[in-house]
Amino acid sequence: MSDPEDYSRGFGGEALAARLRRASERIDRDGSRVYAAQGIRFEQRWYGTLRQLSEHDRPMGVGEIAAILRITHVSVSEASRSMEKAGLVVSRASAEDGRRRLLELTEQGRDMVARLTPLWDAFNAAARELDAEAGDIVRLLDRLDDALDRRSMFERIMEGISLDEPRG
Description:
ArsR-like_HTH; transcription; 3 strands; WH-like_DNA-bd_sf
């Protein structure tokens, strides 16, 4: 049942990007509230990079992390700069290629991961519960990723634009 006060919901599939952003923002906002309630200074955007560095337990390049997470190099770079300022990671030039920067957890970063692991387990349990309640949304997101891999939004939009229309 749709809410007449919910502008985006009224557009159905046409509001796909807006709805995905909104859901992501809601989940991130609640995650931030959990960290704050536990007295932990932690930014949601740090999670993927911190988790990769912890799981691989070795220095990793920004590009490598971005490729694993399937997000932009810029996103990982911005998060890592913020993590470096917070003392969680150090960045240094690669011995093989001085232009390449490697990220590594500091002792403070390792301590943070140890402190957050039980909390992340609670996050994961809540995510599984939410996914089940929403009807296995992760499976549908997998299908969305696959559809975008087959043909991007750019391709779909460009195919629908008339060649007679002016481009500005």
